[in-house]
Amino acid sequence: MGWTGLKAAVLAGGGCRIEGELPPGAVARSTAGPGAGGAGAVFFSHGNRRVRVPLGADGPALLIVRDDGSAELSCGGERVEGRLEPVGLHCPRQAFITVSESCLFDCAYCPVPGSRGPRKTVEEIVGLVESVAGSVDAISLTSGVAVSIEEEEEYVCRVVGALRRFGLPIGVSIFPTPATPARLYALGVAEVKFNLETATPELFAAHCPGLPYGTVRDALAAAVPLFGRGHVFSNVLVGLGETDDELDACVDELVALGVVPVLRPLTPAARCRNLARPTPERLVRAARHLSRALGRAGLDPSGAVSMCGACTGCDLAAWRDL
Ligand code: SF4
User: Fold this and answer.
1) Where are the domains of the chain?
2) Region 189-214: what's the mean pLDDT?
3) Residue nearest ligand 1's atom 4 by CA
4) Which of 107, 207, 254, 282 has a CB 3.0–4.6 Å from the CB of 259, allowing a cystine?
């Protein structure tokens, strides 16, 4: 399966040994997403394909780094030549910033509530973007919920207002209110990602106590006419106990709305730390279903400019990795 098999094995594997010297600026440390609070990760690319490889000596992947900048990644019986990409903030080619590193909600799979991190000031965020502005193509923002969903949205809108001066496309992924799509659109935001997180409302209720599933779905539906098909995204975790049929039904429902599902393999953490990672075979099967659904709907995510849709490091992106 070449690249597809390699990436699926790395995503399902959970760590990579390194041989050779990592170049400066290659290691990303994250306060959100699958690696939040972890040992860091590097990004390996092969043409326009990319995988985020978590560092961890006990993992199944092996990365050989050479002095000339080339690298070889092997995992699951597959081996691919490529190179390591320098990281902007959090991922290559983007200034991807977590605004509030704490959350008053307590989703079962998420390490952020336990980390109780600070909220960055607007000035800090502007300074961070300034530090990488010449080497990134986009600004992306995500956030926990420090005080309330409404207050967080207000604050992130202030941040967006301060970042417009950079003239870069801005992507935003926060927990939405019903007004969020229109507010972000009015501020010139290019793309949004509102995460359904689970394949079914029942799994959402079980894993995300106190959060309204319907609000996310309604915000996604409202966002598509504003931001355009292929520019509205939603993470759906794979591995929380959903069946393949439930996952496929969720994908079909999102695609029918014009929303691009980001099928994110579970990183066992927090109260889900005892769950198994999804197998490579399951990830490939789900990505193939997504590919067919996108094709049927004429929905093309390849023009994504920000966040995970442009990065694709942590997921089998049906439009790039198959
Ligand atoms: S795919 Fe998303 S979460 Fe993963 S490294 Fe890229 S931007 Fe971060």
Assistant:
1) 3-85
2) 96
3) 314
4) 254
